[in-house]
Write a structure and sequence with these properties.
Elements: H1 4-30, H2 32-39, E1 41-47, H3 60-71, E2 75-81, H4 87-96, E3 108-113, H5 116-121, E4 125-134, E5 136-141, E6 159-160, H6 166-173, E7 183-184, H7 190-198, E8 204-208, H8 209-216, E9 222-226, E10 237-244, H9 248-263, H10 266-273
Parallel strand pairs: 1-2, 1-3, 6-7, 6-8
Antiparallel strand pairs: 3-10, 4-10, 5-8, 5-9
Helix pairs in contact: 2-9, 7-8
């Protein structure tokens, strides 16, 4: 038979345990910014080899990460990593769980697509603070391709594109694969493809706007325009930050930092140092 006193004690123990769990959960959320500030460093997950955003410890995202750390009064600690099979892997490894090899997660991951389906599929993270916009583009030599309203106007001119990229997938699949024979795909990224175009090895190069512009912007011999295929995202996509879902205070502070950099001109300076013109996302 159950004693009223025993039942009361059991209920109080259960309530106490539930209250402690709720308090701990609340503390984790409330202390996300406090923990970073107490530690004195902001650990930022950053992609390896993503020119002009990060190459060998330098680049636009490195400077942005340093400015964000400064905005919350701490030092920067970079956590470079190689991209996974997809963005879900990167968010798991660098934001909410950590990599199975033992590193991560970071306090914040930088250069994350601000994309509604990605947010819906990754409820453990908070994606926010868009700071720039990416697009798939095509650069061409004006002396060899003065007009290019459709890809058919490429004729048989050689084209460079990184094969393992959205630009490569779009170009190689365009018009039933009509341009595969004239397209070289061994380039590591759009920067290498643009450099091949600059050297005269091809008539056009496809890649991300940031990659192509960091090499060719300001050179009157070339023009950079959207890749003329219906399958390319017309307006591109915004790029921002990601933290754990419950890191509300940290997200708020970093959003404030991004907003300040955008309004005081520092963001434009950071992009200019990477040979890009900054446009708000």
């Amino acid at each position: 038979m159950n004693s009223p006193e025993l039942s009361r004690r059991a209920l109080l123990r259960w309530l106490g345990a539930a209250g402690a769990l709720a308090a701990a959960t609340g503390a984790r959320a409330a202390d996300s910014l406090e923990r970073v500030q107490a530690r004195g460093t902001l650990t930022v997950g950053i992609y390896h080899d993503m020119p002009p955003f990060h190459v060998n410890g330098r680049g636009i995202d490195v400077d942005l990460a340093a400015a964000l750390a400064e905005s919350i009064g701490v030092k920067l600690q970079l956590l470079p990593f190689r991209e996974g099979e997809n963005m879900d892997d990167d968010l798991r490894n660098m934001v909410w769980k950590g990599h199975y090899l033992g590193y991560g997660p970071a306090d914040v991951l930088i250069h994350v697509p601000v994309d509604a389906p990605l947010m819906e599929a990754n409820r453990q993270v908070r994606i926010f603070a868009p700071y720039c916009r990416e697009r798939v583009m095509l650069a061409r030599r004006l002396d060899r391709l003065p007009h290019l309203e459709t890809l058919a106007q490429l004729g048989t001119q050689p084209v460079a594109v990184p094969g393992q990229s959205l630009a490569g997938w779009l170009l190689l699949g365009a018009d039933g694969g009509a341009y595969r024979e004239q397209t070289t795909t061994h380039w590591k990224d759009g920067v290498e493809a643009a450099q091949a175009l600059q050297r005269g090895e091809c008539a056009a190069a496809a890649g991300l706007a940031s990659e192509l512009e960091s090499v060719l912007a300001g050179d009157a011999r070339f023009v950079i325009s959207p890749l003329p295929t219906l399958r390319a995202p017309r307006d591109g996509w915004a790029v921002g930050l990601a933290v754990k879902k419950d890191s509300i205070e940290l997200a708020t502070a970093l959003q404030r930092g991004v907003d300040t950099l955008a309004t005081n001109g520092r963001m434009r300076e950071i992009f200019a140092a990477g040979h890009l013109e900054w446009h708000a996302a």
